[in-house]
Structure of Uridine phosphorylase:
Amino acid sequence: MASVPTPHNDALEGQIAPLVLMPGDPLRARYIAEGYLEDVTCFNGVRNMLGFTGTYQGNPVSVMGSGMGMPSIGIYSYELYNFYGVDAIVRIGSAGGIGDGLRLRDLVIAQGACTDSNYARQFALPGTFAPIADFGLLRRAVESAERLGVPVRVGNVLSEDAFYSADETGAARWAAMGVLALEMEAAALYMNAAHAHKRALAMLSISDLVFTGEALPASERQTSFTQMMEVALSLAVPEAEK
């Protein structure tokens, strides 16, 4: 394990749980820690990328912001996997819905993550890598959603480099290929997990509908995705305890 703290994370060895929930917004990380966890300690404040460790139903879990975009989650997830011994990261973020029938606040779980990024180039692979979720986490998340009565869609998403894209027709072309939602982080997380032989999953609440213009305000994105949070937190509870 590399020397810690790092330039981006104040935590010392042993302060971060094996499972980390990772919203993009550090204020959502604080909301989850204060609203759902017990015995909470803040392990990181560098660049205000807040990170907390506590317990959920007696089980250790951490929650930390990732920032926006693949370069940002790439840094934080790399350090968590490779420097802090984290086994699994579950991204709990927002996304723009493009799949048929999606509504605001619907839950999408990313089985795979297409991307227009060159993030995979660093691995010098002799072909195109397909970033996918850990099946065990995916299966458990779907089962938890069903048990909690939370409707869920499972499928492909697109991790984009540009939030404001100059290509005004791209979303429709991705939708025609069955892609459910647009976001900016899952592909890099899945690649880092694969390279580190660790686990990852992205769960996304629909914050806006790309083709209709419907959207939630920033304040609601911080606090209203409770169903996604509860499904993600359930992954901290061993299956034998459920």
